[in-house]
Design a protein that fits this description.
The protein is built from 7 helices and no strands. Helix 2 (42-65) runs antiparallel to helix 5 (131-158) and helix 2 (42-65) runs antiparallel to helix 7 (210-219). Helices cover 65% and strands 0% of the residues. The longest helix has 28 residues, at 131-158. The protein has 220 residues and is mostly helical.
């Protein structure tokens, strides 16, 4: 068995991973923030607005952790040009009628990938000397799982016709191809999706009530 102090990541490698995560999160929050004014559907506006704040907290947490890993604070770094190209493509849909494509890119491609990556990292992070990183990943995992569930609810609402569903599938396939070619957010390959652990139900006031946002949209 490996020794409890034998880590999977060097300090420099851990810092690089956090810079990679911060790059993806920073670009995602900027994309969502910019799309709010371009998106006519109230449910999608509320979804994006709610999650921009959470992503800003993730980026800040990753950035503050970096000096503890002997790296500069609040620095973002793409793993490679391929991941930059993936994020560029994800940000392309800006027309008012492209809300479905915007949500697909974030909630069916990027966020599920980040969730799987964070879970994989958490499973390999040393419990003895990496508790700060593990706590950050725990918080990001909880938020991303919540975001994905809310995003999927809104997507099912907005992509309810065969034509829109087909558009969503085609766009998802394009982005997934770019993500795979880049080797994911870290450039090291795509981790396998893992089932979510069973957790206690959060209080309603801490949930993203996507169904309520849909009701608000229908009432206008």
């Amino acid at each position: 068995m490996p020794h409890p102090l034998e880590g999977r990541f060097s300090v420099d490698h851990s810092a690089r991973l956090l810079r990679n995560y911060r790059y993806a999160v920073e670009r995602a929050l900027r994309a969502l923030g910019g799309w709010i004014a371009l998106t006519p559907e109230i449910s999608a506006k509320l979804l994006m607005g709610r999650h921009v704040w959470d992503l800003a907290q993730h980026a800040d947490a990753f950035g503050k952790r970096l000096p503890e890993l002997r790296a500069h604070a609040q620095v973002s770094e793409p793993a490679n040009p391929g991941f930059t190209a993936f994020m560029d493509a994800l940000e392309e849909p800006e027309a008012p009628e492209q809300t479905v494509e915007r949500l697909v890119g974030v909630y069916r491609v990027l966020k599920p990938h980040l969730l799987a990556t964070y879970r994989d990292h958490l499973g390999r992070a040393n419990a003895v000397y990496e508790p700060p990183t593990r706590r950050i990943l725990d918080r990001c995992i909880e938020d991303e799982a919540r975001h994905i569930a809310a995003g999927e609810t809104i997507l099912r609402h907005l992509a309810g016709t065969p034509a829109l569903s087909e558009r969503a599938t085609v766009w998802q396939g394009r982005l997934e191809g770019l993500l795979a070619s880049a080797g994911g957010v870290t450039g090291e390959g795509l981790p396998a999706a893992s089932p979510a652990p069973t957790t206690a139900r959060k209080p309603p006031e801490l949930d993203d009530d996507a169904r309520e946002w849909i009701r608000l949209e229908r009432s206008v």
